[in-house]
Design goal:
By secondary structure, this protein is mainly α. It is built from six helices and no strands.
Length: 105
């Protein structure tokens, strides 16, 4: 199982989502190793994720939200929280440490 880091303020929301997901009627959703699931399968496609980001960004009155921007924010938050470059590389799944090092410049 992969691990990830959430600030306390988001961790409670995540726990609530997992409770909701456990109550979904299909076992494929309850037992999925993926955080987010679709109605049809235990895995969301890239297109589905992009559509959901757009939908919820619009509801939150946010502009130009992309998966890449969320990934960048995740990495910046790790740096701001004092994570070492090796841990950032592991959590962000950067193939090259040089990619992770860019966040420390």
């Amino acid at each position: 199982m992969n691990s990830f880091v959430l600030k306390d303020v988001y961790a409670e929301n995540f726990r609530e989502w997992l409770k909701i997901r456990e109550e979904m009627p299909r076992p494929i959703h309850q037992q999925s190793a993926n955080v987010f699931v679709s109605e049809a399968t235990s895995l969301l496609t890239e297109t589905a994720i992009q559509k959901l980001l757009g939908k919820y960004a619009q509801k939150a009155k946010m502009e130009k939200v992309t998966a890449l921007k969320l990934r960048h924010s995740f990495c910046r938050n790790l740096v701001d929280e004092g994570f070492c470059v090796e841990e950032l590389q592991r959590l962000a799944r950067h193939e090259r440490i040089e990619t992770s090092e860019l966040y420390y410049l």
